[in-house]
Structure formats: structure tokens, C-alpha cells
Amino acid sequence: MSSLAFVEELELEELHLVRDRATGLRAAVAIHDRTLGPARGGTRLRRYDSLEAVARDAGRLARAMSHKFAVHGLPYGGGKAVILQDEAGARDRALLEARLRAYGEFLNRLGGEFGTGPDYGIGAAEVAVLRSATDHAVGVHSHGLAGRATAAGVRVAIEAGLRAQGLDLAGARVVVQGVGAVGAHLARDLAARGARVAISDVDLERAAALARELGADLLDPASCLSAEADVLAPCATGDVLTSDSIPALRCRVVAGAANEQLAPPELEQAQRLSEAGIIYIPDFVANGGGAILLTGCGEEGRAEDLPRTEQRVAETVRQVCERAAASGCTHYEAAVALAEQRLRVDGVDRAGGEAYPLGS
Ligand code: NAD
User: Can you tell me the distance from the alpha carbon of 283 to that of 145, in angstroms, rounded to the nearest whole number?
Assistant: First the structure.
């Protein structure tokens, strides 16, 4: 099979591979679907085995962004960029910054058809460097705010999942895997609402400090997925729900911030979860808060938009839960169907009510 078969499978509109000789930049920019508007999505910086793996991940993540924007009724298309991190880039900050500027210049050539912001490995400092070369990046000032918005949406999704299982958040045991920008806010929010929180992170110091602050249980990152709990909230990396990991889960609800939690084939994993009696609120539904905040306000998100962002996620979660209950399908199928309907049939204005002018 051709190594580019994934472009067809994922139905990508465009896939750009970027190699800059001067800096050694290697990156992929995937644009999945611009039916609803220009493409938006974060830029990720990570180690990969090959440029092909970079391109494939960018494609999968771009499709998830299309679903995220469509399901939440936002007038944007799905895109994602991935920059390949290597030994030299990790060691030499000046080289990494030169690569970021070269990448920014490439974004200029796309002429605004792809706008980006922070993601795994790209924080406010890296976006600031990008912005020295392009106007098509946001998140210098509101990266932390996006984490809060995302965490608030994840908590809303957790509450909905628990309700569907006849449980309340107060007293529920929630395992948060990964306590970075989103997971730490989530853990604090859950603890403040009376949940019994257990956390884990491969950054052991970070996890220990937060566990002390919250009086939360500290779990071993190697085994936290299968810890006994009411809720598992994956807030670290993707591909955590696999044919191996699902049978070992001991929770009633899965809802978290990490993108692409279901390993391919996604539908099979969703059905496996359902057969195990576990409600899975899809990642692109639960983690839409950051995207809503950053894309809804133009340049940068604003703290005063947080309550409306949370309401927006809550409304989408409600629609997905209703659809799943009415049709007897999984929440994943209900969410994909809702997103596809908005992409292919309704258009965002008719399906989502107002086209979400969060800011001016
Ligand atoms: P982050 O990098 O700030 O935090 C991730 C944390 O997970 C880190 O503390 C890291 O040490 C930890 N981690 C990594 N691998 C782990 C493992 N195997 N077990 C336990 N901990 C592990 O990232 P973030 O901004 O908090 O985002 C978390 C996830 O949510 C990412 O997958 C991101 O793509 C996704 N997401 C984030 C946002 C946002 O607004 N920041 C929005 C949507 C989706």
C-alpha cells in the first residue's frame, strides 16, 4: 500500500511537507476540510521516527479539528501542523527558534488559509517567536487561559458522563492522567467540587507537588489507566484507548483533554468501550473549550469569555448525549454524526444557532 494512502483515508484537502535546508526544519501542515471556514489548529513539536509519521499525525489531528469545530458550531476548518523535533533542535534553542521563524515564513505563503497556536511542545514562548515571522499564530498571552477553558469543558463532559451513569461528581473518584496546562486546572476544579481526585504524571515532581496541594492520591504513570475509579480523564497523550488497554479499564466514564484518545480503528475502540459499559465522551467534544476561546475572539482569548465558552461546550455535550440516547449508538458515533451533518448538510449557522461571535 502506498505510504500516502492515509491522505485518501483521512480525506485531507491538502498536505504540505516543509523542509528548510538552512535550518533543518522538517514539518507537515495538514488541512482537512474548509467547508466551514479557513483552517485553524495548533502546531505540535515532537520527536517522530520519520517525516511520514509527522505527516500522518498532522492529518489525523487535522481531521479531529474539523470534527471539533463542526460539532461545536464554529465557522472554521480543521488543520494541524507538526514540526519534527530532533536532538539538535532540543539541544540548541537558537536553532529551534530559527526553525520556528522558517515555519512562520511558510505559513505566510499559505496566506491565512491556516492559522495556528500552541499545542504539545509549543507554548507561549514558541508562539512569540513564530509571531516575529508571521501574523498567522495566536496564543502568546492566552495559552494559560486556553488551558483553563479546556479544563472547564472537560469537567462539564465528566459531569455529563457521570449523570448518564446515574452518578454525581461530588464523591466520584476521578483519575487525571497528565497534570500539565489542562490536567492541573482540571484536578483543582474537580477537587473544589468534591470529587476524590487521583493524579499521575511522568513529571513526578509536578505530580507530587499537585498531589500535596490537593490532598490527592498519587498514582504510578505506568498503571494509572487501569486504576479503579468512576472516571478516567486522559490529559497527556493520544492513543491511550487501545484493544489492549480497554479490557483493563476499571472506570465507568472516560472523558479528558488529550487529542486522539482512541487508537485506530477508532470506531472499534468506541464500541469496545461501550460493550464494557463505559461511557466515552469523545475528545473533540470534551476538549473544545480552548479552541472555542482562541478562535472565537480573534487575536487572543479573554478571561471574560470563559463562562460562555463553558456554556458552549456544555450545550454540545448535551446534544451529543441526547443523540446517543435517542439512537442507542455510542457517544463517539453520535458526535461524529453531528459533526458530519454540520459539515455536509446544515452548515454551521443553521446547525449551531449563532455562529459564535465570542468577541468583537
Ligand atoms: P502539557 O504538555 O501542558 O501537559 C501534558 C502533561 O502530561 C505533562 O505534564 C506531561 O509530563 C504529562 N505526561 C506525558 N505523558 C504522560 C504519561 N504517559 N502519563 C502521565 N503523564 C504524562 O499539555 P496540555 O496543554 O495540558 O494538554 C494535554 C493534552 O490535551 C494534550 O494531548 C493536548 O494536545 C490536549 N489538548 C490541550 C488543549 C489546551 O488548551 N492546552 C486543548 C485541546 C487538547
Answer: 19
Instruction: Tell whether the model's pLDDT for residue 339 goes beyond 50.
Output: yes
CA–CA distance, 176 with 255 (Å, rounded to integer)? 10
- Number of neighbouring beta carbons within 10 Å of residue 243: 11
Is pLDDT at 299 greater than 70 in this prediction? no
Angle between the 306-327 and 143-164 helix axes, to the nearest 10 degrees?
A: 30
**CA 158 – CA 193 distance, rounded (Å):** 12
**Hunting for cell 501542515 — which residue is that?**
29
What is the pLDDT at residue 305?
85
pLDDT at 77 over 70: yes
Mutate to test the pocket of ligand 1, among 47, 68, 235 (most ligand atoms within 8 A of CB): 235
Query: CA torsion 186→188→190→196, rounded to 10°?
Result: 120
Q: Hey, which of 40, 60, 150, 239 would you mutate to test ligand 1's pocket, going by the most ligand atoms within 8 Å of its Cβ?
A: 150
Distance, CA 140 to ligand 1 centroid (Å)? Answer: 18
Indicate the SS3 state at residue 24. coil
Alpha helices, H only, 111-254? 124-131, 143-164, 181-192, 204-214
256: left (phi over 0), alpha (psi -120 to 50) or beta: beta
Distance 184 CA to ligand 1 centre (A): 10
CA 211/CA 230 separation, integer angstroms: 19
CA dihedral 237, 241, 242, 245 (to 10 degrees): 100
In percent, the amount of the chain with pLDDT more than 90 equals: 86
The closest residue, in CA terms, to atom 15 on ligand 1 is 236
Q: How far is the CA of 147 from the centre of ligand 1 (A)?
A: 10
Closest approach atom of ligand 1 to CA 236: 7
Q: What are the residue numbers of the active site?
A: 80
183 lines ligand 1 (CB under 6 A): yes
User: Range with the lowest mean pLDDT among 111-120, 191-200, 260-269?
Assistant: 111-120
